[in-house]
Automatic annotation (TrEMBL):
This is Alpha/beta hydrolase. It comes from Gracilariopsis chorda. It comes from the Eukaryota. InterPro entries: AB_hydrolase_fold. Keywords: Signal. Residues 1-22 form the signal peptide.
Length: 386
């Protein structure tokens, strides 16, 4: 009985997706074109004359993006996907612009755990003072901590790209260790995390003899991104990337022209936590507030192949990656069973595999797709901290 229902749901989903966009997820709504993205710095951008327009992050030209709210077909398709045990992804599905390469392998750079006042953190700074380009602050999502930026597969890929741009990395842990989430309240004086982080960052830079004029960039995920949108009122951050979050709307509405250049990075399939309509509204708000540069990057699903798990996390062998792929192709809930196998005895590796699975599902998770472009964009917007 269940098999019949599942097959019917699968065919219905395929039909709906085909009706929607010909079987492929389109990234044409992205304001950062992944084919011709220009990541060069531009600090002489004219303020938008029309507040209802927005800025292309790869150009100084003012553009009016087309907003498309999800229709009935898209909403029904998203509902069907929730019923499936694993995403219907293959070599022919999930691409937006042909083969999308993953970011390079993580850099072999160790990290150190640290306690800064009452804030737990982790950092990596393999650069001499003359080679250091800036400091990148990293804020995790719920149920996570600072060390995940150096242990979880997607987080490691993002961190490695920031290191390639010669940023010292400082990841901090939220105060709430029950949910693991960050406080998202605004104004800043009512946000305990913002005030703790503000003090910790300054203390860490002083202790590590990093000059106050060294520019700061920042990247946050989910609740970490929302908190970051508030923190930007308290720290002289040059640029920030808000992953899978439209930010705190009150914080955005109170932004000035000194607010950092902001890049919204979200999943094309996310219709709940950071849907395109919410991202578009947040983007317009910052443009109206005369923020120097506002961009958007919509990420398509990651293609699922027999080597995907190994490609994202080398500690997962190609054999295990193949087994996970085959289990998913049988449309059975056997992923968890494979993850409990003898080949994955370390809890950290199992946790990493589960993160990759969430990315493949198109769920609410950090995706390292195009992390190299995000890192370069953040670096292109640096300015000296005053």
């Amino acid at each position: 009985m269940f098999a019949s229902i599942y097959i019917a749901a699968t065919f219905a989903l395929l039909l709906l997706v085909k009706m929607r966009d010909g079987g492929q997820i389109s990234s044409q709504q992205s304001l950062l074109d992944t084919k011709s993205l220009n990541l060069s710095s531009s600090r002489t951008i004219d303020k938008p004359a029309n507040p209802d327009r927005t800025l292309n992050a790869s150009s100084s030209q003012v553009q009016t993006p087309k907003e498309q709210k999800p229709g009935v077909v898209q909403r029904v398709a998203a509902w069907f996907r929730k019923l499936l045990p694993f995403p219907l992804l293959s070599r022919d599905h999930g691409y937006s612009d042909g083969a999308i390469p993953l970011s390079g392998h993580t850099l072999e750079s160790g990290f150190r755990s640290v306690r800064i006042g009452d804030v737990d953190g982790a950092y990596s700074n393999p650069f001499a003072p003359t080679k250091l380009r800036g400091v990148a602050l990293l804020f995790h999502g719920c149920s996570q901590n600072a060390e995940d930026w150096f242990s979880l597969p997607e987080h490691k890929l993002v961190s490695s790209e920031l290191l390639r741009q010669r940023f010292a990395l400082l990841a901090l842990t939220s105060q709430n260790r029950v949910t693991g989430c960050w406080s998202t309240r605004f104004p800043s004086r009512e946000n305990e995390d913002v005030m703790r982080v503000k003090v910790a960052v300054r203390q860490w830079m002083t202790e590590h003899q990093i000059a106050s004029a060294v520019p700061i960039t920042a990247l946050g995920v989910s609740s970490g991104a929302t908190m970051l949108s508030v923190l930007a009122h308290e720290l002289p951050i040059a640029s920030q990337a808000l992953y899978i979050s439209p930010g705190n709307q009150r914080a955005l509405r109170n932004a000035s022209d000194k607010y950092p250049s902001t890049l919204f990075v979200h999943l094309a399939t996310d219709q709940y936590y950071a849907p395109p309509s919410s991202i578009a509204a947040a983007r317009r708000t910052l443009v109206r507030r005369n923020v120097a540069l506002v961009g958007e990057l919509s990420l398509p699903n990651v293609p699922f192949t027999a080597t995907t798990f190994h490609d994202h996390e080398p500690q997962l062998t190609k054999e295990v990656s193949q087994r996970l792929y085959e289990a998913a192709q049988r449309n059975e809930n056997k992923i968890a069973k494979v993850l409990r196998g003898e080949a994955l005895t370390k809890a950290a590796i199992r946790r990493g595999a589960l993160q990759i699975a969430r990315v493949l599902r198109g769920g609410h998770e950090l995706s390292a797709l195009h992390a190299d472009k995000v890192a370069k964009w953040l670096g292109s917007q640096l300015r000296e901290v005053l």
